[in-house]
Amino acid sequence: MDLNYIIVLFVLTFLATVAFTYFVRHTLRDADVSDSPIVSEHRHKAGTPTMGGIAFLFAILFIVSIYYRNTNILIASFIMLTGGVMGLLDDLLGLKIKEYQKVVKNVSDSVVPIGLLDLGPGEEARVTTDKAKKQVYGYVDEGKLEIVAEIPIKYEPSEKTKIIVQLLPGLFLALTGVVTTLGGFTLGILAYPICIIAILGSINSINLIDGMDGLAAGIVAIASFSCCIYAYICGNMDMIPAFAILTGICLGFLVFNRYPASIFMGDTGSFVLGTGYAVAVILGDIPYFGVLALAVPIVSVIISLMHRAHIINLPVEPLHHTLNYKGISEVKIVLSYWLLTVLVCAIGILAKLYIFA
């Protein structure tokens, strides 16, 4: 497999994603399938089409129709489509409204303790906990808080159901029998739990980071392109196609998803990227660099888990929403996350060239 083959694959994927995203965005607008942000700082984005990840599915099918003879591309595409269908079901369930959460603003001159938060003067927050819901009307009557909005919260299946569903792409990958070694170790029966855990972790990392315009698509594009460079350095061109497809999808989507985004990928898109990245890393047998390149989303997940375990306390979860809540602009946060991803990828590539060569 030569470099021209990879370049053509990337260009076709990029152009297909741009075309299908344009079409899907238009269709979703006509159907009024739009986002309802739960973060108060993002209320101005209400009405933006979501479920844009459907365009990813079309782009993948287009690529498969051309490159179906390439086993790695075929397997990676199959697993990505599986992940996309799982995400699509999640998005469709999300069209059902579970409840409307109130957004309150502290209109007093002192700090108001509500739920788990201490709300400073002029600050806003969503009323989410049972304790906060019981307190809110008392504070409103006292003139300390003002209800400024009601945000629709989508219905979500239970965590148990979501995890079971997310196990399927990893199980399907293991059942193909192509994963026999990873990181220098022969897996045997361990291929099953490793594939399942890797894809489960990747899906949730990218799904969690998908909360700002271009954030998830940009990080996955940088990580995937860096993996292409790493594979080229290793002299294994067969490792590159799946990463080239991911890079093309992400950059094609960023044409419409960069700030200010005119479409969001939804769970459909984040599940495609999560499964695709994990599959590409496993098939390419670069687990160490693959994990390093995805360090920013992984750290974000760890911080969220610490918050849920009450080790730390975030006013808004995940971390990028907390930074926005504290006054840092969305553009600065996204660029910072992108630059951090570039930095860790560059460290990994330089280490490969000069330390582990």
UniProtKB/TrEMBL annotation:
UniProt cross-references to InterPro entries, sorted A to Z: Glycosyl_transferase_4, PNAcMuramoyl-5peptid_Trfase_CS
TM ranges: 6-25, 46-67, 73-93, 163-183, 189-208, 215-233, 239-256, 288-306, 334-355
One of the Pfam families matching this protein, by short name: Glycos_transf_4
Secretion signal span: none
MF terms in GO: phosphotransferase activity, for other substituted phosphate groups
One GO biological process term: cell wall organization
Name of this protein: Cell wall biosynthesis protein phospho-N-acetylmuramoyl-pentapeptide-transferase family
Keywords of this entry: Cell membrane, Membrane, Transferase, Transmembrane, Transmembrane helix
Compartments in which it is found: Cell membrane
GO cellular component, one term: plasma membrane
Membrane topology: Multi-pass membrane protein
